[in-house]
Amino acid sequence: MNETSNGEQAVERLPSQKSAFVSEELTKILELVQGSAPRDAKVSIDFDGKLRLHIDVRKGEDIEVLKKLLPLLGTGIFHDIEVGATPHHPFFHRISALVDR
Prior knowledge:
Layout (H helix, E strand, L loop, with lengths): L1 E2 L5 E2 L7 H17 L7 E6 L3 E7 L2 H10 L8 E8 L7 E7 L2
Antiparallel strand pairs: 1-2, 3-4, 4-6, 5-6
């Protein structure tokens, strides 16, 4: 506690834990996916009003495996799975999913 200019005690505010919570949740999601994706996969998350997961892989057959696996991970938090091109990486394949968190 600090003393104010008029002699009263003021309580110091602790830093917000909200940003740490968000970071921890995102880290958990990344670790969950990285543990199930091929070793050389590039896993990322972006937010544009919705939380979206991206997995970029070299082999097309990895996409088929991930399409089946993603809905089962994390008690079904991944949905609306899409397959498309990987921006700026023509030799990669991308699978994306919305994340419920």
